[in-house]
């Protein structure tokens, strides 16, 4: 287990956590290659519990993202004077250890946010809609991982490396609450790579095809993929509680609801959120989102069309210098980003950088991007947002 965080089985119904979640055996230990990828190093001396730090709350702390929040806060020595661990009634009373101290998970209620400066929410859209505004009324700055407020006009939708200015007006310590939305995980991973190129050559059209991991659907989906894999190998019918069809040894269109235009909600998030984050309603975006039986970390094929030419060598150089991005693009040995390699890492990896032969001159590029969507696609991005408030 991660030294910073530890679940204590306080009730007999507590399930052991998937080894693919933070705190378990890192997938990277099984990775065959040595990577240049970055993860904030855990420090041995914890200075994070400090009287001058903000008071924190983590909403949905027992979930896949909630667990990762704790890990990222600890890895980055985020300062805090107190931390409240909140989840549903089901988890109330469970004990957790965080940074060597014991905490009891509390049930989320309307009173949870008294004296909370920053709340990191990851308990689903309906919980955010119900409790986010209540927290804001109490003066709390809410960083929300759900889609509940992303497209609300005066709620900033922020990727710190991309559009930090969008939240420049929100300040900690003036008693005023506010909402800041974390973009969808596929959008974050895509725009971490596409934005540095967009800044140079202006993207006019982007075509995204995703290969999305079980982790994007939460801890229970990861457990179901593990279970199904075992069941299929043993010749048993797979248990389908989270997804309506067999996931192990299969792939299928993303499980988000299908809209009247034939796109699913996940695909339209990429379309709408890109426009909001880039503050560009003219950029044309289309997406096809697919679930693949990968435990953790999303992959995306991204095709870009530019207003001004951008050759592949210049694009590679731009990406090599982009914060939070690492280039893995070794053509001779056919080594490119994989979900396994980026699992539990902060950086988004980009490779397969090549001129799009279907477009004239250097007006188009193909890239392949992988990122840990529980980390950069959710918890890390949200904690980076919180860091900008300090
Ligand atoms: N997974 C990702 O990669 C990812 C990425 C970006 C955004 N998100 C978003 O983050 C949110 C959580 O995702 P997840 O993957 O972490 O899901 P998850 O593993 O299923 O965890 C859900 C969390 O929400 C809590 N919760 C459920 N009902 C609640 C209630 N009535 N009151 C308080 N807490 C409640 C759960 O607590 P109990 O354990 O007590 O039920 C649990 O802590 C979702 O909005 C999701 O869209 C997820």
From TrEMBL:
Q: In which pathway does it act?
A: Amino-acid biosynthesis; L-methionine biosynthesis via de novo pathway; L-homoserine from L-aspartate: step 2/3; Amino-acid biosynthesis; L-threonine biosynthesis; L-threonine from L-aspartate: step 2/5
Q: Name one GO molecular function term.
A: NADP binding
Domain annotation Semialdehyde dehydrogenase NAD-binding: ranges: 55-170
Which residues does the entry assign to the active site, renumbered to this chain? 185, 298
Entry keyword set: Amino-acid biosynthesis, Diaminopimelate biosynthesis, Lysine biosynthesis, Methionine biosynthesis, NADP, Oxidoreductase, Threonine biosynthesis
SUPFAM superfamilies reported in the protein's UniProt record: Glyceraldehyde-3-phosphate dehydrogenase-like, C-terminal domain, NAD(P)-binding Rossmann-fold domains
> Is-annotated flag, keyword Amino-acid biosynthesis?
yes
How does the record describe its quaternary structure? Homodimer.
Q: Which family does it belong to?
A: Belongs to the aspartate-semialdehyde dehydrogenase family.
Q: What is this protein called?
A: aspartate-semialdehyde dehydrogenase
The primary gene name is LOC110785304
């Amino acid at each position: 287990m991660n030294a910073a965080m530890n679940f204590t089985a306080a009730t007999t119904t507590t399930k052991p956590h998937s080894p693919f979640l933070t705190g378990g055996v890192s997938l990277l230990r099984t990775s065959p290659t040595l990577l240049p990828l970055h993860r904030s190093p855990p420090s041995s001396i914890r200075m994070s519990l400090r009287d001058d730090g903000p008071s924190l709350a983590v909403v949905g702390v027992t979930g896949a993202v909630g667990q990762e929040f704790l890990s990222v806060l600890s890895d980055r020595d985020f300062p805090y004077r107190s931390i409240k661990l909140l989840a549903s009634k089901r988890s109330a009373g469970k004990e957790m250890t965080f940074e060597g101290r014991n905490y009891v998970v509390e049930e989320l209620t309307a009173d949870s946010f008294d004296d909370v400066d920053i709340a990191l929410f990851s308990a689903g859209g309906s919980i955010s809609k119900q409790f986010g505004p209540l927290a804001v009324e109490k003066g709390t700055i809410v960083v929300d991982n759900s889609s509940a407020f992303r497209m609300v006009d005066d709620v900033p939708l922020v990727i710190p490396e991309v559009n930090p200015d969008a939240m420049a007006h929100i300040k900690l310590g003036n008693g005023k609450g506010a909402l800041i939305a974390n973009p969808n995980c596929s959008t974050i991973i895509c725009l971490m790579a596409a934005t540095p190129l967009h800044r140079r050559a202006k993207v006019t059209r982007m075509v995204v095809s995703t290969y999305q991991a079980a982790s994007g659907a939460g801890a229970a989906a990861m457990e179901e993929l593990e279970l199904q894999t075992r069941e299929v190998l043993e010749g048993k019918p797979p248990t389908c509680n989270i997804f309506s069809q067999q996931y192990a040894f299969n792939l299928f269109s993303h499980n988000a609801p299908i809209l009247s235009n034939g796109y699913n909600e996940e695909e339209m998030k990429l379309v709408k959120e890109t426009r909001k984050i880039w503050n560009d309603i003219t950029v044309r975006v289309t997406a096809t989102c697919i679930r693949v039986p990968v435990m953790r970390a999303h992959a995306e094929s991204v095709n870009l069309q530019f207003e001004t030419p951008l050759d592949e060598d210049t694009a590679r150089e731009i990406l090599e210098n982009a914060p939070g991005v690492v280039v893995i693009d070794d053509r001779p040995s056919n080594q490119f980003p994989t979900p396994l390699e980026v699992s539990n890492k902060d950086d988004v990896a980009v490779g397969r950088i090549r001129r799009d032969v279907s477009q004239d001159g250097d007006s188009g590029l193909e890239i392949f991007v992988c990122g840990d969507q529980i980390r950069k696609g959710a918890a890390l991005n949200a904690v980076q947002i919180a860091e900008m408030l300090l």
